């Protein structure tokens, strides 16, 4: 197929080069430039040009005829070997649009009328341009289809072969209905440069026919030569041979099976014993005695299985021990939860006692502390909403305002109301606010704290600014202490464990050097997906 494709491409290129020579022929260019009014000169040159082109047709056996479409030919006979046709007749041809879209193209196989009758030809069309690139007409070279078929079929005159151009259009073929039914262009779209084959089934009247499709694709032009062969033709001569091979193979298989059964008895017995032992262990949870008189690979397998069972028993005992320790830890955790709940309930009772005694300020403090404990407990959840966290922080600030009076001012600004529904680790903001009140406003009668919440492409962006004494020069080298169990170090470590880089905490002097600016970066968490568990698995968020 590759050789045939090369021969066909060589023949096609010869025709294309010949058309290029004709379109640039000096006599043809001179004829096209003769004015229409000079009828005598134009007729003479057309006659001379027709003789030259006739000689060219006669010297090229593969050419059937030539047609030149120009404006105002002096005479025209489409049945001659070289005919001059009115350019306006080109518009009525079914292949006109194909010629119009390109400077040259193959039109494929078609029938034309000649002096010898109807002839099948494969036509190549090329536009004619002047030396100034002005469009002047079209030249058609009609190649004898019989010559191309003889070349394409070679020794297999009954083969179903087809020649497709680079766009998948059929140039010529021996059995066009099969080409249409198999949809060869669609199948051959997968063909790359080189050769290949595929097995295709075609449905016809409820039955299926198998075909072997072989193709060869030219590298430069991209044209494909393909052959379709019924599968039954390929398999007809090999059926008897296949049956002979089948019976020989069947006899060989039977002999091999008998020989294998004979040998397997000496190998499968220890394997069956090992499988039985492996099957009983999960059920009875005890080892099965295995033979210890094997000194080969089976003996190594038995010894390895015994060591494996001993290791599994050790793991069972270790898991049982760990399970007991886990249960004890859960009991201790439940007992530890009793104390915060007890304290919360005690604060509630003290609040009611303060109300009964008329101590409104004390009642308000106890109420705020109760709300802080309720949020701090939060049913054991590790993450709470930003709204709850801000409420917890504001409760602390209100308690401090009861002590400071008008000396303590604060503001909480949220860029978007929807940000309140996002989740953050609980007890994140209050330690920084407490640090500002205790240390930043120490020995002062007034202070201001501003909390702002925004978001950017990286997540939540929370800032806490105070106008306190600011940071000491060596503040970063001092050991960080926890505040009430939830200090700055605790918050920093939790954010790092939960989310990792680039999220975290930045502490720096505020603008002007008076006060401290704390910046927290936390990712957007729209759901507490882990239900209160620590989010350490998201430390590389």
UniProtKB/TrEMBL annotation:
Keywords: Cell membrane, Kinase, Membrane, Phosphoprotein, Transferase, Transmembrane, Transmembrane helix. It is found in: Cell membrane. The keyword Transferase applies. It is a multi-pass membrane protein. The chain crosses the membrane at residues 241-263. Pfam families: HATPase_c (PF02518), His_kinase (PF06580). InterPro entries: Bact_2-comp_sensor_kinase, HAMP_dom, HATPase_C_sf, HATPase_dom, Sig_transdc_His_kin_internal. Its main location: membrane. One of its GO terms (molecular function) is kinase activity. It comes from the Bacteria. This is Sensor histidine kinase. It comes from Paenibacillus radicis (ex Xue et al. 2023). Residues 265-317 form the HAMP domain.
